[in-house]
Amino acid sequence: MTTTLVHVLRHGEVHNPQGILYGRRPGFHLSERGVKMAERIAESIGDRDIVHMRTSPLERAQETAAPLAERLGLTPEIDPRVIESTNKFEGINFGEGPMTLVKRPHLWRHLYNPFKPSWGEPYEEMAARMLAAVHDARDAARGHEAVVVSHQLPIWTLRLFAEGKSFLHDPRKRECTLCSLTTLHFEDDRLTQVLYSEPAGDLIPAKDKNAPFSAGGAPEEKRP
């Protein structure tokens, strides 16, 4: 059997002092710390057998991919299938976390179905597009390793699907923190393992790891 690894990398910290839910909006770039996180990724996995990279078209994802791509001498493929999810709350200031919604009753009409979810892109569609991109990355790197740079919710939805778990979840408990790696192991075309690690975890302030709408969590191994 041929073993292929696909590392799905979440982008680094974004400069967003106003706490905007930026979603797919252009113009949001890595912060100074986010650049350091991206550089840490290049240091951590830059010596691995990575022969293919693809990234979301959003600036923060491409900027996260850049140090690793330079080290590997690769040109990442822009793949719109790994872009951030759509969200009806995009553009709203979420500086107060979940209280933002509590204090805005006019937004409650979007919360009627958490299983879909009613406020954004359906989980099933998100998982399907992410899985298709991962399969293409696997095929491009057959027998080696690939990196796909994406965003928190699409990555987490992909992992829930891969592990056969319900899409319904608490956003505060996602194990997909900044510049974390969700690594899918394939034997030929069969997914055999899902591993999770945080190479840049020490660069994330503790308050941000545990804050609502963040994705803290200790590194651990998961198997489907």
From TrEMBL:
Instruction: Quote the cellular component terms of the Gene Ontology held in the record.
Output: cytoplasm
Q: Name one GO molecular function term.
A: phosphatase activity
Annotated region Disordered: the residues are 202-224
Please give the InterPro entries that the UniProt record associates with this protein. Answer: His_Pase_superF_clade-1, His_PPase_superfam, PGM_Phosphatase
Residues annotated as transmembrane: none
Q: Which residues form the signal peptide?
A: none
Please name the PANTHER family in this protein's record: BROAD-SPECIFICITY PHOSPHATASE YOR283W-RELATED (PTHR48100), PHOSPHOGLYCERATE MUTASE (PTHR48100:SF51)
By what name is this protein known?
Histidine phosphatase family protein
Native source organism of the sequence: Nocardioides daphniae
Q: What is the lineage of its organism?
A: Bacteria, Bacillati, Actinomycetota, Actinomycetes, Propionibacteriales
